[in-house]
Amino acid sequence: MKNDFIRSLSKEKLIQLIEDYSKNWLAMDGVWFQSVERTNGMDAAMYHDTEAWKRFTVIEAKRIKQFLNLPERPGLDGLAQALQLRFYANLNESDIIRDDAQQVLIYRTRECRVQRARERKNMPFHPCKSVGEIEYAGFARTIDDRITCECISCFPDVTDATCCCAWRFRLEE
Question: What is the number of structural domains in the chain?
Answer without folding.
Answer: 1
